[in-house]
Description:
CATH architecture: 3-Layer(aba) Sandwich
Mean pLDDT: 89
Number of strands: 7
Number of domains: 1
Distance between the termini: 43 Å
Radius of gyration: 15 Å
Strand content: 25-35%
Amino acid sequence: MELPEAIALIDHPYLHDPAAPKRWADLGAGRGLFSRALLRLLPPGGTLHMVDRAGPGDIGDPGAGLRVLRHTADFEHDPPNTWAHGPLDGVLMANSLHYVADKGAFLALLTSLLVPHGVLLVVEYDTEIPVSRWVPYPMSQARAVGLMRGAGFTGVARIGGRPSAFGHAPLYSVIGRLGLRRP
């Protein structure tokens, strides 16, 4: 996938708001394709924590007054304070949530790290059939929407989709905003 395709897959009005989320984490950032896409969409002044257990790729100059912090950490098993410093306004999980076995518990953890109205942006394969070690715990779009709503995200909506470059299930992207927490 090329950068313009990644941008199109995650582009949503939430990201263009001048009051848009400014402190993001890209969990399972890998080489940084979706990190670069997100940085192209965020307003100046933001920070992106790139998190990957093999060490995130070097994406070069993020531009536009944006800051990138790279963390070598396992977002599922390492304590969040190793990769999330302070509350987050948004979390991007592009092709990484399918590595998490207990998605409900993990989404509960994410909600504790997000500010009220924080954003979760997910890119995944639209299937429930595991594909070897690369997609061990897949999650269809319908299940993703249900899990996100169950975790307290509102306005959960599909952003886009595209065929998989690997010839199996197509990719989808969904976004949701965390509802206000009760005191």
